[in-house]
Protein backbone atom coordinates (compact mmCIF):
# COMPACT_ATOMS: atom_id res chain seq x y z
CA UNK A 1 0.00 0.00 0.00
CA UNK A 2 1.41 3.39 -1.01
CA UNK A 3 1.80 6.12 1.57
CA UNK A 4 0.22 9.48 0.80
CA UNK A 5 2.50 12.44 1.50
CA UNK A 6 1.05 15.92 1.46
CA UNK A 7 2.87 19.20 2.03
CA UNK A 8 0.62 22.08 1.00
CA UNK A 9 0.35 25.61 2.43
CA UNK A 10 -2.24 28.19 1.37
CA UNK A 11 -2.10 31.67 2.98
CA UNK A 12 -3.45 35.19 2.50
CA UNK A 13 -1.80 38.07 4.30
CA UNK A 14 0.13 41.33 4.16
CA UNK A 15 3.80 41.64 3.32
CA UNK A 16 5.82 42.89 6.27
CA UNK A 17 8.99 44.09 4.53
CA UNK A 18 10.45 45.26 1.26
CA UNK A 19 11.20 42.07 -0.70
CA UNK A 20 14.84 40.92 -0.53
CA UNK A 21 15.97 39.96 -4.04
CA UNK A 22 19.11 38.04 -5.00
CA UNK A 23 20.22 37.21 -8.54
CA UNK A 24 22.79 34.43 -8.77
CA UNK A 25 25.56 34.08 -11.35
CA UNK A 26 23.56 31.26 -12.92
CA UNK A 27 20.72 33.73 -13.59
CA UNK A 28 18.42 32.19 -10.97
CA UNK A 29 16.41 34.72 -8.96
CA UNK A 30 15.47 34.34 -5.30
CA UNK A 31 13.11 36.72 -3.49
CA UNK A 32 12.49 36.47 0.25
CA UNK A 33 9.91 38.24 2.40
CA UNK A 34 7.79 37.83 5.52
CA UNK A 35 4.01 37.53 5.49
CA UNK A 36 1.69 38.55 8.35
CA UNK A 37 -1.47 36.44 8.49
CA UNK A 38 -4.26 37.62 10.79
CA UNK A 39 -5.97 35.28 13.20
CA UNK A 40 -9.74 34.91 13.49
CA UNK A 41 -9.91 37.10 16.62
CA UNK A 42 -9.13 40.75 15.91
CA UNK A 43 -7.31 41.29 19.23
CA UNK A 44 -4.69 38.58 18.55
CA UNK A 45 -1.31 39.29 16.97
CA UNK A 46 -0.80 37.96 13.42
CA UNK A 47 1.30 34.91 12.65
CA UNK A 48 4.47 35.63 10.64
CA UNK A 49 5.73 33.33 7.90
CA UNK A 50 9.01 33.42 5.98
CA UNK A 51 8.47 33.02 2.24
CA UNK A 52 10.89 32.31 -0.60
CA UNK A 53 10.16 32.62 -4.30
CA UNK A 54 12.29 31.21 -7.13
CA UNK A 55 12.42 31.91 -10.87
CA UNK A 56 9.51 33.73 -12.51
CA UNK A 57 7.63 33.85 -9.18
CA UNK A 58 10.64 35.64 -7.66
CA UNK A 59 10.73 38.17 -10.51
CA UNK A 60 7.01 38.95 -10.16
CA UNK A 61 7.33 39.30 -6.37
CA UNK A 62 10.33 41.62 -6.80
CA UNK A 63 8.55 43.79 -9.38
CA UNK A 64 5.02 44.00 -7.95
CA UNK A 65 5.05 43.22 -4.22
CA UNK A 66 5.68 45.98 -1.70
CA UNK A 67 5.60 46.25 2.06
CA UNK A 68 1.91 46.18 3.03
CA UNK A 69 0.77 44.42 -0.18
CA UNK A 70 -2.06 41.93 0.22
CA UNK A 71 -1.07 38.64 -1.40
CA UNK A 72 -2.24 35.05 -1.55
CA UNK A 73 0.23 32.22 -1.85
CA UNK A 74 0.29 28.48 -2.39
CA UNK A 75 3.43 26.60 -1.51
CA UNK A 76 5.13 23.93 0.51
CA UNK A 77 6.77 23.98 3.91
CA UNK A 78 10.47 23.24 4.17
CA UNK A 79 13.01 23.45 6.95
CA UNK A 80 16.15 25.53 6.40
CA UNK A 81 19.07 24.30 8.51
CA UNK A 82 22.48 25.85 9.12
CA UNK A 83 25.28 25.89 11.68
CA UNK A 84 25.42 29.04 13.76
CA UNK A 85 28.71 30.78 12.92
CA UNK A 86 29.30 31.94 16.49
CA UNK A 87 28.40 28.75 18.40
CA UNK A 88 28.49 25.99 15.77
CA UNK A 89 25.04 24.86 16.94
CA UNK A 90 22.69 23.46 14.31
CA UNK A 91 19.78 25.89 13.84
CA UNK A 92 16.63 25.62 11.77
CA UNK A 93 13.78 27.78 10.54
CA UNK A 94 10.54 26.85 8.76
CA UNK A 95 10.19 28.51 5.34
CA UNK A 96 7.42 28.35 2.78
CA UNK A 97 8.64 27.84 -0.79
CA UNK A 98 6.00 29.58 -2.88
CA UNK A 99 4.73 27.83 -6.02
CA UNK A 100 1.94 30.29 -6.82
CA UNK A 101 1.53 33.99 -6.07
CA UNK A 102 -1.70 35.98 -6.34
CA UNK A 103 -1.59 39.77 -6.15
CA UNK A 104 -4.76 40.78 -4.32
CA UNK A 105 -6.52 44.13 -4.05
CA UNK A 106 -8.31 44.98 -0.84
CA UNK A 107 -11.29 47.33 -0.57
CA UNK A 108 -8.98 49.92 1.00
CA UNK A 109 -6.64 49.91 -2.01
CA UNK A 110 -9.17 49.71 -4.84
CA UNK A 111 -10.00 53.43 -4.81
CA UNK A 112 -6.31 54.39 -4.78
CA UNK A 113 -5.33 52.19 -7.69
CA UNK A 114 -7.96 51.69 -10.37
CA UNK A 115 -5.60 50.00 -12.82
CA UNK A 116 -4.61 47.04 -10.64
CA UNK A 117 -6.42 44.74 -13.05
CA UNK A 118 -3.45 45.12 -15.38
CA UNK A 119 -0.96 43.72 -12.88
CA UNK A 120 0.09 40.19 -13.73
CA UNK A 121 -1.05 37.25 -11.72
CA UNK A 122 1.44 34.45 -11.89
CA UNK A 123 0.44 30.91 -12.67
CA UNK A 124 1.78 27.89 -10.88
CA UNK A 125 5.26 26.89 -11.94
CA UNK A 126 7.67 24.23 -10.86
CA UNK A 127 9.96 25.54 -8.11
CA UNK A 128 13.58 25.68 -9.13
CA UNK A 129 16.07 23.81 -7.06
CA UNK A 130 18.78 25.79 -5.39
CA UNK A 131 22.35 24.77 -6.17
CA UNK A 132 24.77 24.44 -3.28
CA UNK A 133 26.86 27.17 -4.94
CA UNK A 134 23.87 29.51 -4.77
CA UNK A 135 23.63 29.62 -0.97
CA UNK A 136 24.11 32.91 0.77
Task: Give the topology, please.
Blueprint: E1 9-15, E2 20-23, E3 29-37, E4 47-54, H1 55-64, E5 70-83, E6 90-104, H2 107-110
Question: What can you tell me about this protein's structure?
Answer:
This protein is mainly beta and 136 residues long. It has a single domain (9-106), classed as Nucleic acid-binding proteins (OB fold (Dihydrolipoamide Acetyltransferase, E2P), Beta Barrel). The chain has 2 helices and 6 strands; from the N terminus they run ββββαββα. The protein has helices spanning 55-64, 107-110, and strands at residues 9-15, 20-23, 29-37, 47-54, 70-83, 90-104. A 5-stranded mixed β-barrel has the order 1-3-4-6-5. Strand 2 and strand 3 (29-37) form a beta hairpin. The longest helix has 10 residues, at 55-64. The chain is globular. It comes from Crocosphaera chwakensis CCY0110. InterPro entries: NA-bd_OB-fold (IPR012340), Primosome_PriB/ssb (IPR000424), ssDNA-bd (IPR011344). Keywords: DNA-binding. Homotetramer. One of its GO terms (cellular component) is nucleoid.
Amino acid sequence: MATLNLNYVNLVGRVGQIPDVKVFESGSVLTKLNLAVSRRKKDEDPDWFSLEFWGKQAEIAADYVQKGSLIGIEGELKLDEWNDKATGVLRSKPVIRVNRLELLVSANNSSNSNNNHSQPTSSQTEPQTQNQDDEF
